[in-house]
Amino acid sequence: MMDTQLTIDTLLVRAEKYFTKKEVISRTSTGITRLTYGDFAKRTRALASVLDILGVKYGDRVGTFAWNDHRHLEAYFAIPSMGAVLHTINIRLSSDHLKYIINDAEDKVLLIDQGLLPMIENIKDEIPTVEAFIVLSDNEELPETNLKPIYHYEKLLKEGNINFSFPDNLNEDDPAGMCYTSATTGNPKGVLYTHRSIVLHSMMLGLADTFGISESDRAMHVVPMFHVNAWGFPFASVWFGTTQVLPGPNFTFNTIGELIETEKVTITAGVPTIWIGLLNELKTNMYDLSSLRFIVCGGAAMPKGVIRTYQEKYNILFVHAYGATETSPVTTLSRLKSYQQEMEDEDKLEFISKQGIPVPGIELKVINNQGEVEKNGKDMGEVLLRGPWITDHYYNKPEKTAEAVKDGWLYTGDIATVDFEGNIKIVDRTKDLIKSGGEWISSVDLENALMAHEGVSEAAVISVPHEKWQERPVAFVVKNATYGKVTKEVLLDFLEPQFAKWWLPDDIIFINEIPKTSVGKFLKRKLRNDFKDYFISG
Ligand code: AMP
Asked: Does the predicted model carry a pTM greater than 0.70?
């Protein structure tokens, strides 16, 4: 067979040739922009031509610091298609982490959303590799800024060449994208995606048994384009000619509801925090969400109670997926097998809320000291992954690589059980697992059970030191403001029938908000730190 290269430019060319009329719908700071794939392709080629004039060479890193909009999508294709590396930078990082990753990646050019300029202005003297700044904005003129040299994106595009030819020597094994892990400890670690890994991951997203993204879909990417390529959805959508809806800057749950209704979104993806927030929004404002085929949810465990409520009250289904920055990210997902359709609703829900089986292309095993765990839904072990879109190293970090990649497998640091159907259920991060008297307690199971109570809006469970049992679980709960009184006793009574007695939290502490990471996951390290003097005596 021919050894043609799996490169990003070929995805763009397909949309450009065959889906000229299909649309990218982009919410920006001034309104909604509608762009056909025909125009999108011209603008993308023009962007590549101006980056070329600015001196970007094969293999150079170009950073984006932006929300989900059409300009960011143009960068997604222009940068890799010209042979450079698209480095998406998380806009919620601290100044220290921002500096660290821009310097580690040695970004040559930065594309920055106008609203986010101050964060880069603050560190401008400490990022010496950056030779040019480009402002992404709807405004006609450049804003006041001390960044130099500074360019106006739209003006540059006007001067660009809409017929720019991408180099014909792109190699599928060369880096096309780069993203840093959202570090909860230490410095973020860089992961490089190759053209090949992105193309194969995109192809997987279109399979009928994964998300089946297709031309007829209207896909809204709520998951940020600055984190793990918005789970690969933008790449797959362009390739398949899928209509895309990009929710833009500072969106609210109201924006999400409105966009689903007005743009008739058929598939969307995001972390549980988003869908829990939308559920609260639906209590006061109704939207027509009937166009949705399903919602893809991942990045953290999706509480079963939330899936149930969406299904029962709004007839909306979820597909629960699991992955990480290191894995492009999608590696497993949960869908019922044909013979499981006959099961009772509650049993179906139990399966759907797990993280599921590996997608085609990915191999998985769950191991503990005794080897691979039994498929009994009980034994816990670490999830190991291998496949063409799983990273085999961290950028510039041989020691971190040696810890995470062994014998050709990525050690994820996630602990799971495996049921008789092969579904994994993530029960914890290695470091979050509660080790009580030599036994393991899953903080995630306790959190999900608590969040199934109507009086609870969010719950996080951490381990605290214990003089007899070494560690014991303590729960932090944010009350649901619209519900009546909930107390520690009410919640413990609610948990009691669901767990062995020794799993029950030793304390339940009510707080106003669970601290979150830059991508909206619970930041348990902060809770552990804030309550580090809290000690339960036996
Ligand atoms: P990140 O690299 O920031 O995307 O985080 C990846 C981590 O998020 C994984 O290693 C898991 O700990 C967690 N994670 C991702 N998806 C899920 C999921 N569906 N359920 C539980 N945890 C998840």
From this structure: yes
